[in-house]
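For the sake of transparency, this paper describes our internal protein records without simplification. An entry from our holdings is shown next, in its original layout:
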Amino acid sequence: MIIVLLPVFATAQKESRNLRKRKKELAEKKESQEQDSEKDLQALIKKHQKNQDKATRKRMRKTKKKSKRLNNNKREFFLVRIFRK
């Protein structure tokens, strides 16, 4: 009985390896696409800042710095904190 089932187990393992390999390839492709989109976004932001005059760029930098400082001290939404525990 065991000898009869061995080929079935072997093909099942092979399919799962192929499936794992395909999932890994898709994950790598998705990650590379995300990195490319992040690079494109940063390039657009840089281009947008270059289009502004000096005073506007300075004001944008100050606002960005201020918003980072204020947002770092924020707490999570109360429902998230309650249901996480």
Summary: The chain has a mean pLDDT of 86.
